[in-house]
Design brief:
Number of domains: 1
Shape: globular
Distance between the termini: 25 Å
Radius of gyration: 13 Å
Largest sheet: none
Number of strands: 0
Helix content: 40-55%
Order of helices and strands: HHHH
Structural class: mainly alpha
Amino acid sequence: MRAQSARHTQAYLASLDRICRQLLAAGHDPVSLCGMRLIDVPQSPERAGLVFGRVVLGMTTLPHDPLLVDECGDEITADEVGHRFTLSSIIIPRAI
């Protein structure tokens, strides 16, 4: 059960990473992603995967839910981005 949960968490974070990389490539900066909502993300297979991952982990998927939420469903604020994530990827948590 624990291994399955870890796989779901990893899949969710990978989906979030793909979405964020696409948005960054489109000209958004990491801090602006914190203000984005699911409705702001264009329909795509990557968005569908992100929404599915949230469902599997028991998170809400309403259109106005924040885009950046961690694997527990807690919103990641602009103040937390630099503290919680590496510079190379805003999604992969820093090693402690």
